[in-house]
């Protein structure tokens, strides 16, 4: 364990995601500053990455996502511990299980795949309080959604569009004409997404559905970043149900069908006082789910103390 008089030295290997961009990169950098951790980071494909890691002399090398890094380096040896945060569980577990053993510690975004990895711990996703904050002005949009397209999202968004309740979407591609009619952009930067959340009364959440590498069809149970981020931006999230809702944020309004989704959102729009009460309770539940809390959890698991 690192002595209490010193700061843990953490090098994070970043990954640029297609839809959420550099949210994890910035979130972890802000977390390190909040915790007072000696910190350096670089993208997995940086030409000088191995040299930078060696020069920094980390206590912990934390790799985000892991697949591309593993293909490039395999088990990277050094006088440091290694860890990977797998963020596509359980959808890609058959693939991630092929390389996760190259790391000393494995952190998974869904507890359903803990049994598929050695030395595994559950590390949920979260929000960045430096980026995800409520706005001060009036909310310009009633109902919105930001994310990639899939058939389930198309069904729910289409039902809202047909009911005249969908104000905007960002992302896609979409198969429903009414959804395409209110699509603002195929993709936007994370900061712009947060700005949309700050200006939206109700943010719809429908989960990812395609299991690319999950032959056993291990069900997904955990919340996704949208729930944390939109709530932190002051929106009320109305979500497709998952088991973790009941444990983490039981006040969150949830639905199981298109008809239930439309009815729930219509009723919440018609009763702003009720909607605000629910929103405030959800925000209170999720306030501690930050990147700093997640990084602290990682340091606790690997045995690196942060001096007070």
Percent of residues in β-strands? 15-25%
- Detail the poorly predicted runs: 1-5
Give the termini separation. 15 Å
Number of domains: 2
CATH architecture of the largest domain: 3-Layer(aba) Sandwich
Order of helices and strands: EHEHEHEHEEEHEHHEHEHEHHH
Number of strand elements: 11
Supply the number of helical segments: 12
Indicate the CATH topology of the largest domain.
Rossmann fold
Structural class estimated from helices and strands: alpha/beta
Helical fraction equals 25-40%
* CATH superfamily placement of the largest domain: Glycogen Phosphorylase B
Oligomer: single chain
Chain-averaged pLDDT: 95
State the major sheet: 6 strands, parallel
CATH top level class name of the largest domain: Alpha Beta
Task: Write up what this structure looks like.
The protein is α/β, with parallel strands linked by helices. The chain folds into two domains: 9-126 and 290-302, Glycogen Phosphorylase B (Rossmann fold, 3-Layer(aba) Sandwich); 141-286, Glycogen Phosphorylase B (Rossmann fold, 3-Layer(aba) Sandwich). 37% of the residues lie in helices and 18% in strands. It is built from twelve helices and eleven strands. Strands 2-1-3-4-5-6 form a six-stranded parallel beta sheet, sandwiched between helices. α1 links the parallel β1 and β2. α1 (23-35) packs across α12. The protein starts with 8 loop residues before the first strand and ends in a 6-residue tail after the last helix. Residues 1-5 have low confidence and may be disordered.
